Amino acid sequence: MATRSVPHAIPPMEAVIHETMGDKVYQQLRQAIMSGRFAPGQPLSLRGVAEAVGSSTMPVRGALTRLQAEGALIDGPGRALMVPPMTIAMIEELRDVRIALEGCVAERAASMMTDAHLEAVQKIYDEMDAHVEAGETSAYLRSNFAFHSAIYTHGASELTLAMIQNLWMRIGPFLNMVAPDIPHMRRSMSAHKAIIDALWRRDGAGARAGIAQDIGDAAGDLRGRLQAEAGTTLKRASR
After folding, report:
1. pTM, whole model, 2 decimals?
2. CA nearest 111: which of 154, 76, 82?
3. How many CB atoms lie within 10 A of CB 235?
4. Is residue 155 in a domain?
5. Which mean pLDDT values do the consecutive 10-residue runs of the chain (239 residues) have?
6. Please, what sign has the CA dihedral across residues 114, 117, 119, 122?
7. Rounded-to-integer distance, Cα 230 and Cα 87, Å
């Protein structure tokens, strides 16, 4: 007669803490980078970040290491890390990849979002518009990130959202360069209006076109800013 095998008991193990302090620091820094709260070339020292988040240096070191591995930070002066610089070639590459990916996701979201979802996005749009008219750049950048995130959540899997967020970690700091320009923010709001109007109509192609306009306009303004800075630097060097 065959005997039944008795399953081995799981040995005692430590309970898993779902979110450590390092995870919290990482998520906070990651969102700050994506929403343009750090400028290109800005250094992030271990001690400076620890003081800002009210933490010891150990979890901050882990968070900074993760962000460096993802390409969001690079080696900077001294022992600090910093937000990487941007080139015109990279602007154009990111523009084309973002238009293809984010446009596709927005088009998918148009057929999946409920009226309640759209009302939430409309509220963010209205807040963003108020920030533009008040000249509140930091608040505008945070709302801009929230606006896009609220749409993409309904048109993409976790895998695709992670890809989009990685792209935003590269482009987010550079929105910081053009956002203080109120005409730029108003042009951006024109694209955002096209996006939200298309979503209300359940017009996927229209939502995709609005995303392309928004990303393309921002890339054009950023390219102009970098070219102007390069020209200024060249003039100073020739004196």
Report:
1. 0.81
2. 154
3. 9
4. yes
5. 54 55 91 88 90 90 93 88 90 96 98 97 97 89 94 96 93 79 85 98 98 94 84 60
6. negative
7. 11
Comparing CA positions, the residue from 158, 144, 166 lying closest to residue 215 is 144
Domain count, the chain: 2
Contact partners, residue 28, CB within 8 Å, separation at least 6: 53
Distance CA 45, CA 57 (A): 10
In a domain, 6, yes or no: no
Q: Is the dihedral of CA 132, 134, 135, 139 positive or negative?
A: negative
- DSSP annotation of 81 reads E
**Residue 173 identity:** P
Q: Are 209 and 194 in contact (CB under 8 A)?
A: yes
Question: Do the beta carbons of residue 201 and residue 192 sit within 8 Å?
Answer: no
Kindly state whether residue 8 falls inside one of the protein's structural domains. Answer: no
Within the chain, strands assigned E span: 43-44, 74-75, 81-82
Give CA–CA dist 194/98, Å, rounded. Answer: 18
Which residue is associated with the tokens 């109007």?
A: 197
**Within a domain: residue 48?**
yes
Residue type, 216: G
